[in-house]
Structure formats: structure tokens, C-alpha cells
Design a protein that fits this description.
Blueprint: H1 13-25, E1 29-33, H2 39-50, E2 54-58, H3 65-69, E3 70-72, H4 74-82, E4 95-97, H5 99-104, E5 112-116, H6 125-128, H7 130-135, E6 137-140, E7 145-148, E8 154-159, H8 167-171, E9 174-178, H9 183-193, H10 199-213, H11 224-236, H12 264-280
Parallel strand pairs: 1-8, 1-9, 2-5, 5-8
Antiparallel strand pairs: 3-4, 6-7
Helix pairs in contact: 9-10
Amino acid sequence: MRFDGTKSYIATEDLTVAVNAAINLQRPLLVKGEPGTGKTILAHEIAAALKLPLLTWHIKSTTKAQHGLYEYDAVARLRDGQLGDAKVKDIANYIRPGKLWQAFTSAPQKSVLLIDEIDKADIEFPNDLLLELDRMEFFVYETGQTIKAESRPIVLITSNNEKELPDAFLRRCFFHYIRFPDRETMERIIQVHFPDVKKNLVRDALNAFFELREVPGLKKRPTTSELLDWIKLLMSDDISAEALRAKDVKTVLPPLHGALVKNEQDVHLLERLAFLSRREGR
């Protein structure tokens, strides 16, 4: 079982090495990188390439580790008991399997489990999953059963580095940082998504894009997903490559810049730089 990327996902050599190393070690793959660098979609592509089912667990600030194991619906059982429903005699009727439970019992075929944005949860969340991810089993106290992985799932964990993860958790993972794509890789990514795009438009769009990313003081630099949105808009509005050939982004904001610049502070910064550049050029 080996991952080599897909037709719709350009995986660099170091990324494919990391994915296959995690699969061979049977350890979770912890992926970090700038937002928009393809961390989440990686799990979808691994599942597609290996023809495995994908289970996705999106983490929120209120998510607890227990939610991934199972939840006991005591309220529903109490209500059914008041109504005289016979199924209250079996507590298993009120156990709701979580994503880990589903991944552990997906046999005969193993699955891909995505734990997305783990750093959004409480700091104790990763520690609360240590044994379950290490041993691939957990105990259900209400029913007295042990849920054990029949076929060890491929686990991908993403983090935007919003908070530090515990050392004990990191030791149990294979780590990979997705570097921001260089120009050549970015051209390949654009070609995959827009095979009919004009080469001169790609060239000038990438010039403007990378210049924008290098503007000092920018609060949020545009990422791959935003570049793809921008290219799509440029194509749909039939913006010419010549319209992108300003001297640099300090002179004029790029057309349809709302696809690239996502907060008012950065818009004001670029407008001020454009104003100062024009004034100095008089």
C-alpha cells in the first residue's frame, strides 16, 4: 500500500515520503503548514488513491476526546423509559459511536481517519487521545466492551499551529511540515485545476501573487487556495495578462484583489503603499 499522489493533487517528494513512512510505521501523520497548503485535502487524496473509505472528524473549540470514541445519550434513555419503551433495557441502544469507533470497526477494509485542526481543541485534547491512538483500542464503560481496531486505520492529523501540542503526543506521531509551494510547483498545481489557462496569464498572475506575499507588514499572506480562486476569476472575467503587469503591488492593487486579500488592514496597507509609491513617482 503506497501513496504517490493523484491526478488532482500535486504531492511533493518529501510529502509522499512522509505519508508512506507513517503508513509503514502505523503511526498517525501530523501535518502542519500555512492555511491553504492542502493539509485537509491530503486525507481525501490518500483515501482516493488507496481506494479506502474516509472518515472526517472536524475539531472545534468545544470538542472533547470522548466525542471521538462514543457518546452515551442518557437523556434519550430517560425519555424512552418514561414512555415505557422496551429498548431502554439494552443500554447499547443509547451508545452513539464516534469517528474513532467507526474507523476501528470499518473492517474488512481499513479506512483513512482525518482529525482536522486538532489545535482548535483544549490543550488536554491530544493527551486524552494518547492511549487510543497508540493502542488502537478503548473501553466502553456503559456496556463493558472493548472496541479494538480490526484493521489499523491510516490516521492523518492536521494543525494550523495555533497552539503547541504536548510532547507525549508528538512522540507518537510522524511529523511533516508542508512548505509553501515554489513557483514551479505552483504552476503544476494551476495546470491541474485549469488545464486550459493561458501561459502568459499564469506567468503574470504568479508574478503579482508572489510579490503580494512579500509585501512587508501584510497580516495574512494569500495562500494556494486563494490563488486558485483568483485564477478562476481572472479566467471567467477574461482579465488579460497585460492588466496584471503593473510595476509591483505597491503601485496598484491587482484586479479582483478581494480573492487574495482577506482583511481590511491589509487592503489599507496596500492602498497606503500604492499612494506613497505614486507620490514618490511624481
